[in-house]
Structure formats: C-alpha cells, structure tokens
Amino acid sequence: MTQSNIAMIGLGVMGKSLALNLVDHGFNVTGFDISDKHKQTALDDAKVLTPKGDKGRLITVDSLVELLGSLAKPRVIALSVPAGEIVDNVVQDLLNAGLSSEDIVIDTGNSLWTDTEAREQRYQGQLRFFSTAVSGGEVGARFGPALMASGNRDAWNYIEPMWHAIAAKVDEQGLPVGPFDQGEPCAAYLGPAGAGHYVKMVHNGIEYADMQLICEAYHFMSDILGMSAQEIGGTFSDWNKGVLNSYLMEISADILQTPDPVTGKPFVEVVLDKAGQKGTGLWTAVNSLQEGAPAPTIAQAVFARAQSGQKAVRVKASTVLKTQSVKDNNVDKQQTLDELRDALYCAKLAVYAQGFDLMNSTSEKEAWQLDFAQIAKIWRAGCIIRAAFLQEITSAYQAQSQLENLLFSQHFVQEVEKRTLGWRKTVANSALTGVPMPGISSALGYFDALRCDVLPANLLQAQRDYFGSHTYSRVDEAEDRKFHMSWSEEPRSQKEV
Ligand code: 6PG
C-alpha cells in the first residue's frame, strides 16, 4: 500500500478535522487514537469528503509500531492531544516504538510555549520536535485554519507543502477564499521552538479581549439604550459591514438574533452569565506582567471572566451596594450608538497594539526576530480573531517593520483621532450610569497613558524614595545618576548614591 505522508495521533474533534482536511488536499494520512470510537468516526467521515478535493486516503492503525511502518521517511507525525504531560508520554511511546532522529513530531495542541521550548531541547538528537499552533476551532481545522509553525528549520521543508495546502487562504485584497481556491495561505514558519505557540497564546489573549469588548457593547446597548437582543444583533450585523468587520462580530450578531429552541426567548438571555476559560488568556496576562510589557485590556478580560464567575457574590452585591448615578432620558440613540461603535473600534485597536507590543518584547528577549507583518497576514483568515482590519495591520508593519507601537502607524493615528470623542463619551456614559465597561475603559486608560509625556510616576518614585530609600533619577541629570533625599532629617538634603 502507498505509504502515508503524515500520521495524526489523537482523532478527537481537532485531530480528526485536520486529518480530513489533509486527505481532502491529496495527502495520505494514518490515524491513531486510543478510542476505537474516534477511529471509526474518522473513517466514516472520510467516506463523505468534500467533493472538490484531490483526495488522499485515511487509514487507521492499532499500534504505534504499525503507525511508524505506514509512513514514508522521514516520518512526519502530528499530535493532537491535550496540552501537558500527555505530549511527553506520547513522544516517549513513539521513541519506544522505533522513532528515529530524522523523524519529525509536530505538537498541534495549545501547549504552553515554554513547554514547547523545553521539549525541543529535551528531544534533540532523538527526533525533530516541531510545533504548530492551530486556530479556527473545528470548522477551521476541517476547512482552513491559521497555522503558526515553529521549530527545526529543516523540518519545515517537509511540513510546509501540507500546511500551505490545508490552511485558510486569502486573495490579493486579504479577503478569505474557499478551501480549494488559489490564494495566499494563512500558515507560516514563525521562528525557533516555542515561537508559534507563543504567538498563538497572544492571539488568544487578543481573542479574550476582543470578545470582552463586544460583550461590553452588548451590555451598554441593552442596559443604557434599552435595546432588545434582536435589535443589538441587527446593529452588530450592520457594524460587521464596516471597519469592525470580524468573525467574532459576525457570530455575536448571529447569537443575539437566535431564539432559544426551548423557551422562544432570545437564546443569549437563557445562557448563564458565568464565563469559562482554559487558560491561554491568563498565560498572556501573566506574561505581560512578567515582561513589564503592558497589556492591561487583555488582563482585564481575564479578570472580567473571573468576576463573572462570582455569580453568588454579584447577586448579593446587586442588592447591597447602592450607588448614585446619572441617567439621561433624552439620549440621542443613533448618536450614542455611533459613539459606541467608535469606542469599540479604538479599544480593539488598542488591544492589538498591546498584543503586538508584548510579542515584540518577548521576540527581542528570545532573539526570535518575529515578523509582525507575517503574523498579521496569517491572522487574516482561518483564526478566531480574523478581521478586516488585519489587512491594515499587515500594511502598517510592511511599511515599517520596526514600528514601536501599532498605534503610531499613520493610518491608525488618523483612524483613532477622529473617533476619540466617541470613545471618551462612551466610557463617560458607562461610568455615569454604572453599567460596567472594564475593557473599553482600560483600553482608553492605556491610550491616554501612552500619549502622556509626563506621568505621575515622578511622585511615585519620590514616595518610594521616602519610605524605602529606593532612590530617584532627576530630569535635569543623566538618568543613570541616582539620588536619595534625607526625608527624616531637617533641613532635607539630597545625596547622590
Ligand atoms: C482558536 C481558539 C481556541 C479556543 C481556546 C479558547 O484560536 O481556535 O482560541 O484555541 O477556543 O480554547 O479557550 P477558552 O476561552 O476556553 O480559554
């Protein structure tokens, strides 16, 4: 029998979808899963593949020895297993089954990037460890995901044709095309081990924040403007035709216009308001804190999920904590909506600026030389944060690869300037009425701090010196000269330390 081009270990939702996508594009795949049910479902689904495909074939095997025997050399084995020690267990099982040093193992799960870095070190000389972070959920994996690859450079030569074939594609304008159309693939080699998973982690941080911003807009429309879920969905649908066009906006419009099949109420109103999380947004926020690369809106989105989880406390607080607030009964609805749309756009842009700044800081530290135009390019289709304005982000980094902050791009300077009043009024309305807007307001705080040439950190440094002799630099001396004021003595005097 013809040998397989690639094996997929783990035929759950993501693994099966990637395997069928590969088959659709003419590759022969060997599948393995500890669950016989998963294997059978994959084989059944492979019988009804997308008609246009230049089909390969899927076989399943019962052991890793059989799996290795079915593959052309060097063997390429993709893992779609839960992140964590299972990845190492499977790699060890593959080594025991006879994997050789030229063989390539690709982790396609949502692994922590530092684990991926450690794995490349650990398996050096035993196999070529590679990683590819996949975004796009089940449908993306099946018909065109965004693929963020990293690891051994030579291994990429074997993997690239397969990843380019199955990835989402965009046309010359950066717009998504069908899975079998010609176009630029949303798959790229991003750097050494860990880089791909790192970029995907930041993608997820941006995803958390983008979702939170949309949710705040929904809350504002519902509680301040008294709009129904159906009407809000309609407005989102309109916004999705303009600068806010994105997958998350599109699905939010659809969700809001869907009735609950059980009660007939708007579906969104029967969903319990407690958000779950698997942890990638938290990893991004922790990384931002550790690096000192501010991503406050991403961190805020993680906190917002945590606060949503404290339902019982919130229910109690809603009756205990009274507040004064201002309600304007004569609001101009259309104008308020226009301001909200502007606020959403600016806040979203600030989130991307935070995410790219964070990537820049880690890229420098790890000497990865991440290519931000390329990252923006592969996020244009297939992934969860795909959005029309990623084309403009791509152009911004193509024009200036060393952009210090995305908000400095001439295009975005102008785009934001004409919307800042709407952003400020929206945040003011939310504060006056008491309808929370932690993400949109934190993004405004980030923007204003960024454009503040003198922050009150002068007072803060003086406070640190006052109680802890932590020293300060002076504006009229070289920054590396450190001084201390004798706060407890009179008259006070300054000493250089
Ligand atoms: C994607 C998604 C995907 C997933 C995460 C989010 O890019 O396809 O980001 O990785 O939806 O698991 O998970 P949580 O919201 O559960 O943290």
UniProtKB/TrEMBL annotation:
A Pfam family annotated for this UniProt entry: 6PGD
Residues annotated as domain 6-phosphogluconate dehydrogenase C-terminal: 196-488
EC number: 1.1.1.44
Pathway: Carbohydrate degradation; pentose phosphate pathway; D-ribulose 5-phosphate from D-glucose 6-phosphate (oxidative stage): step 3/3
Single GO molecular function: phosphogluconate dehydrogenase (decarboxylating) activity
NCBIfam families reported for this sequence: gnd, PRK09287.1
Protein name listed in UniProt: 6-phosphogluconate dehydrogenase, decarboxylating
Organism of origin: Vibrio japonicus
Lineage: Bacteria, Pseudomonadati, Pseudomonadota, Gammaproteobacteria, Vibrionales
